[in-house]
Amino acid sequence: MPDQVYGACDAAYAPYNSLEGLLSLTIMNNPQVICIGEMLFDRLSNELGKPLEQVKSWTDYPGGAPANTACGLVKLGISTAFMGCIGEDAPGEQLVELLTETGVNLTGVQRHSSAPTRIVYVVRDAAGDRSFAGFGARDTIEFADTYLQAEHLPEPLFKTADFLVLGTLELAYPQSQKAILKAVELAKKYQVKIFIDINWRPMFWQNPDAAIELILNLVQNADFLKLTNEEAQLLFNTIEPKAIAQKLQIQGVFVTAGEEGCTYYLAGNSGRLPAFSVSVADTTGAGDGFTAGILYQFCKLGIESINYPKIAKEIVGFASAVGALTTTKPGAIAAQPTLTEVEIFLKNYEF
User: Fold this and answer.
1) Dist CA 291 CA 19 (whole Å)
2) Contact between 32 and 80 (Cβ < 8 Å)
3) For the chain, what is the mean pLDDT?
4) Segment 81-131, tens digit of pLDDT
5) Under a CB-based contact definition with an 8 Å cutoff, are residues 113 and 8 in contact?
6) Residue 58 to residues 42, 45, 53, 120: CA-CA distances in angstroms?
7) 296-334 CB burial, b ≥16 within 10 A, e <16
8) What is the CATH number of domain 13-346?
9) pLDDT over 80 (residue 30)
10) Hey, where are the domains in the chain?
11) Angle between helices 286-301 and 309-326 (to 10 degrees)
């Protein structure tokens, strides 16, 4: 598997362009949601059903759960900022260009001159379901996202935001872990609701055994938690959202199970929704689309809406539709639907 070549600049680290200039733009935009964490390229196998060592053809797609969610929210019409560290290399330039074209607020984007933008190899089975297969010739600690700097997080963004979205992968590295914890601190300072998507990926951790305690400590700060059946069982020994919500004393929990659908608990309202039947091309980013769908509804309807059983169910149904539509095309960001596409899709369904 060939190594990648990346560019560099004189400074080891720099915030994206002029922080002062972008802050004035931020004040005008007032993003409702902040997503913090990794942005990368998923290098998807073009040969379904083949193991890593046999794949000869790959296509790169922009990804990274927090960035996927940020782009998904903007496509649905919600002003959103992304915070993360990207390499000052050709792949990094492509990602920054994509964020710009999508309309994501870039104030919190940092660049690193010598650490490359992360590339993740992804193989797919015959049905299109993905399996992460490592980082090529590089070690997980070598990439730019691990260098996210806490002291350069733009605090003004938190003053007007309603939600902070984060995963747990950046807990695996000392510097980015500090940045994640700083973001949580700022969210609490400005009464920003915290939405955590577990996104358990052992290969990102040098010591996966140490991850569980760090993740469990982080989720104590959550207002809302999203996790898969496997993650729920691993962390809480149950897949029941209500039990998890009551243990953590939080407002909402979503447990997703791919083609088996989703269970949820929202402010005392519990339920289960089956997955939508769609023609699946690639499941990458489906969960991030689901998260974007949930937050879109929170922003549009107001958080108090989760107190009503019918609305709570409709919120989850909308999010499930966003996730389902994301699977119908390759890639995590390119496949994300617009609000119009979701509304047209849902015309034939009633919750």
Assistant:
1) 28
2) yes
3) 90
4) 999 999 999 999 999 999 999 999 999 999 999 999 999 998 888 877 778
5) yes
6) 10, 5, 12, 11
7) bbbbeeebebbeeeebbbbbbbbbbbbbbbbbbbbbbbe
8) 3.40.1190.20
9) yes
10) 13-346
11) 140
Q: Nearest-5° angle of CA 347, CA 63, CA 230?
A: 75
Residue 130's DSSP bridge partners are 124
How, if at all, do strands 80-87 and 105-112 pair?
parallel
Entry pTM: 0.89
135: helix, strand or coil: coil
Q: Please answer whether residues 239 and 232 qualify as being in contact, where contact means their C-beta atoms are separated by less than 8 angstroms.
A: yes
d(CA 233, CA 64): 23
Task: Print burial letters for 256-294: b (CB count within 10 Å at least 16), e (below 16).
Answer: bebeeebbbbbeebbbeeebbeeebbbbbbbbbbbbbbb
Look at the alpha carbons of 246, 247, 250, 256 in this order and tell me if their dihedral is positive or negative: negative
pLDDT of residue 334: 87
Polymer length in residues for the chain: 351
> What is the dihedral sign for C-alpha 95, 97, 98, 100?
positive
**Cα 66 versus chain centre, distance:** 3
225 neighbors 190 (Cβ within 8 angstroms):
no
pLDDT digits (tens, 9 = 90+) for 125-141: 887 777 888 898 899 99
